[in-house]
Specification:
heterodimer, A: alpha+beta, Ubiquitin-like (UB roll), five-stranded mixed beta sheet, 7 strands, globular, B: mainly beta, Methylamine Dehydrogenase, Chain H, five-stranded antiparallel beta sheet, 7 helices, disordered N terminus
Chain lengths: 106, 464
């Protein structure tokens, strides 16, 4: 199985690198490594695990129902259902989800 | 299971003339209950960078206790990511004539995870997780996103499920048996599309359910494009309780967008109740007349201009409750920051009796005084003492929605506040000496959502 290097970057400057096989999700490996990424439904419906892909390729195990097309075009990804297809750089942490959904009345 | 011997408090139920749990009538719940000493509160870390599971807080609300207003115990869930939200009892006053049943087990769903926890409160101050229904078991019934838990007579439990196994529509209802196993899907699939809260009134063979949206729509946060696309609900479903079929659907229209909490009055004889339309910020009165159910808007909260906001700010009526004596309706405007009390002695014509302001975008950020803690969110989940004299509330709505409207809630955590209510005079006043701080845990600040008392409350007890 091909293994890829995934670099996770938090807004406060923290960086971690994990090796993820092509049939594993980024989230499951990050959890195994105890990195403390946020998550919720684990099925791609809720967007709690949203990250932002800044380099590389990911493929989904199932449809990312929590993301709209324009959010996907802007690089937002659901790490609970995303498997790597190349080395990747991903912005992570709860701020990414919060940034994706701003106050609609403001 | 707890190995702690039951305290006298645990054994101190007032059963009146009942053999089972709860009280024989709503009036008995008022006169035979003792003032609440502890509160169970849903507490959560989901959607933050705190690497810890959500938990059940046991809050000391006994003013004679040395640990008054403190969180005296925490029951941590085994997994991260649940979003503990609403919860309920295995049995309530609807089973008051059924011997052998006790109000003892809390049924605590994870709104995001679809995991269902059963917690034993035999030792009230030190509850223990007894068993867990894992998400995969729930998905087998093509349901997800468990929300409202009501016990139904005979010891079974009914849970509103807001989505199918994909987190899309249709939702439905999941039934558990008295061994806390999945009995099956309660409703024939397709009776409803959207689901949210429900309440049943057995003497009239009716259940009423409301509508939020598909989980994949509301989970990520609130998007006006979803409202414009019709992805949020505006209907009430009137069910034949025993036949499990929708007999009538009421479209509340533009003024009834996102109808959430459904509250019947407590008298088993009544056919009156209320539902709050969160987005439209209106309260609808529903009632039966000539064999038909009707819903009429009876309270309209005006949106307000706020400096720096492009659009007028709706009140966002998210929770409401009816006092046990059916005399008052309370609701909160989560975005504005006020909690209102209405005289409903004529249910069709609610009369504003009083209100308090605490937090929100228009209320005082320091409602308990300059030296108190800053209140980030607005009044959200409400709970009233059985005697109707103490109203409590928490400030978090839903992790992703909090992030949009009160981002500071993630940084500082929620609070639980209280107002003293005078039912005789129809007034209430914020208790400046009461504040439970959910922001000061070693793991980090937590959000707080639904509140329940060990001996039943105004939002869970139903009478046959």
């Amino acid at each position: 199985m091909t293994t890829y290097e995934i670099v996770l970057e938090w807004q406060d400057g923290r960086t971690e690198s994990i090796r993820v096989e092509a049939d594993e999700t980024v989230l499951e490996v990050a959890e195994r490594a105890g990195l403390g990424l946020p998550y919720g439904c684990l099925t791609g419906a809720c967007a709690t695990c949203t990250g932002r892909l800044t380099a590389g390729d990911l493929a989904y195990r199932r449809s990312p129902r929590a993301l709209k097309k324009h959010q996907q075009r802007n690089g937002y990804v659901l790490l609970c259902i995303a498997e790597p297809r190349s080395d990747c750089h991903i912005d992570v942490g709860s701020r990414i989800q919060a940034e994706m959904m701003s106050n609609p009345l403001k | 299971m707890s190995d702690v011997e039951p305290t006298t408090e645990t054994e101190g139920h007032h059963h009146g003339q009942t053999e089972g749990p709860g009280y024989v009538t709503p009036q008995a719940a008022i006169t035979e209950s003792d003032p609440e000493k502890i509160a169970y509160v849903m507490s959560l870390y989901v959607g933050t960078d705190v690497d810890a599971p959500d938990f059940l807080s046991v809050v000391d609300v006994d003013p004679d206790s040395e640990t008054y207003t403190e969180i005296i115990d925490r029951v941590e869930m085994p997994n991260k990511g649940d979003e503990l939200h609403h919860f309920g009892w295995n049995a309530c006053s609807s089973s008051c004539h059924i011997g052998g049943l006790e109000r003892r087990h809390l049924v605590i769903p994870g709104q995001r995870s679809s995991r269902i926890h059963i917690v034993d409160t035999k030792d009230r101050r030190n509850p223990q997780i007894e068993t867990i229904i894992e998400p995969e078991e729930v998905f087998e019934y093509d349901l997800s996103a468990p929300h409202t838990v009501h016990c139904i007579p005979d010891g079974e439990i009914l849970i509103s499920m807001l989505g199918n196994a994909n987190g899309e529509l249709p939702g439905g209802f999941l039934e558990l048996n008295d061994d806390f196993e999945i009995e099956g899907r309660w409703d024939p699939p397709g009776e409803i599309q959207m689901n949210y809260d429900f309440w049943y009134q057995p003497r009239h063979n009716v259940m009423i359910s409301s509508e939020w949206a598909a989980p994949s729509t509301y989970y990520p946060g609130f998007d006006l494009a979803d409202v414009e696309a019709g992805r949020y609900g505006q209907q009430l479903h009137i069910w034949n309780w025993t036949e499990r079929e929708v007999e009538q659907t009421i479209d509340l229209g533009e003024e009834g967008q996102i109808p959430l909490e459904v509250r019947f009055l407590h008298s088993p004889e009544t056919t009156h109740g209320y539902v709050g339309a969160a987005l439209s910020s209106n309260i609808f009165h529903f009632f039966e007349s000539d064999g038909e159910w009707h819903a009429e808007k009876v309270i309209d909260v005006d949106a307000r201009e706020h400096e720096g906001w492009e659009m007028p700010v709706p009140g966002l009526v998210t929770d409401l409750l009816v006092s046990m004596d059916d005399r008052y309706l309370f609701f909160g405007n989560w975005l504005h920051g006020d909690v209102r009390m209405y005289d409903i002695s004529d249910p069709a014509v609610p009369r504003l009796a009083d209100r308090v302001w605490a937090g929100g975008h228009f209320g005082d950020s320091y409602p308990t005084g300059e030296h108190g803690r800053e209140v980030g969110g607005g009044p959200q989940m409400l709970q009233l003492s059985l005697d109707g004299e103490r109203l409590y509330w928490t400030t978090s709505l839903f992790s992703s929605w909090d992030n949009q409207f009160y981002p500071e809630e993630a940084e500082n955590g929620s609070v639980m506040l209280k107002a003293d209510v005078d039912p005789r005079n129809g007034t209430m006043e914020l208790d400046a000496d009461f504040l439970v701080d959910f922001g000061a845990f070693p793991d980090g600040p937590a959000r707080a959502h639904e509140i329940r008392w060990p001996d039943g409350d105004c939002t869970s007890d139903v009478w046959q």
